[in-house]
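Many introductory courses stop at the sequence. We go one step further.
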Amino acid sequence: MKTLNSAKGASRVLKNLKLWNKGEDFVDTDIRIDAEGKLVSKEEKDFKPDQEIDCNGALVLPALFGLGLDFMEPLRDDVYTFKNGLDAMRRGGFYGGLYESAANPIDDADKMVAMKLRFGNCGKNDGMDIKFLGAYSKGFGSDSLAEMLDLADAGAVGFGDGGASIPHSRFLRLAMEYGKMTGKRFFFQPMDKTLRHSGCVHEGAYSDMLGMKGIPRIAETIAAYTVLETARFLQVPVHFKQVTCGETLDLIRNARKQGIDVTCDVGLYHLLLDDSSLETLDSAFHLIPPLRSADDSEALWKGLEDGTVTAISMNLTPVLRQDTEVNFEDSIPGALSLEIALPAIWKKLCARVGVARALELLAFAPARLVGARLPENFENFVVIDPDKPSKVTEKVFAGHVCNSPFLGKELPSSVLGTYINGVWTE
């Protein structure tokens, strides 16, 4: 995939497209882009494109908003950088996202200001709608609270844990009690540290067969229950990141009946894969939280269908090649996702929930969750051919890492191009 900056490139017309028209409807259309990257009205009779692209009935969808973005810079810019991340967003059709780096906790106002300036000065930003989670504790630890009031004033849209395990109950209460004064939502990865221990895969038949240390479902459900009880007691809004099992969704359903303001997302790979993938012993399937059973995956799909799940998370975690080409249990968990998310999940997602709900989960709900601008009026869009398979190669990914369970695999759909902030990428 190559990036074409229309300001320096040719004018073009994208022909034979089907534009999403709300609901499940699409209308036939062509799209014109001039040499400066601006969209040109069909009424403009003097427009003479340098290039015509026949899209053969491909779909034009609103651009996406990504949850779970970690670009690693500045502490681990040897792995991945802001530039890599923003390039990946363009390739995948994302106009914005929620940023929280496990390696770089934003735990004071100065760091928040510095992070926003760094993104703003990044050459490929060009108006990307990036929102930031502040840390509710210093260094994602459980010793001292971050200055959440200052972080909120500096622009934090909520407070997160950097993917760390849930802290002890007293610290959790103190954090949520203090953060309540900001009115912001808390974002938690529901995982009990002592129950996870040194586990790296789902505790079940495959972990037993392979002799790997497992992470039981109750590591998630007990942590989730603790958070929900604290949220109920303090009346604080919470969000669960990357829920993996049906029992947690049941807790969320019951909590909502009690009036608790709780939202949740599920990970891209947790929908598309399960722990049977571990049979290969390929470290590309080493994810935290772990891939769980096929029954758990189906429970997540049902959560999408009945509205329990608010959004689908990208859970972007870049990992160096040398940290993946080792024994499974010694590898660093994580996967790339932005460039391949839409073609990987679009057909199955639409078959299960329909086009409108699919876009709600991938674009509108994630943006609404953090107060970002909504992808309306097609100022940014992505063109996808749902029936054209695509091969996932190293060149698909931005940067020099390519850790993904789908590397070398064929996806059911193809992204033909994206138009993000005046830049056409194909």
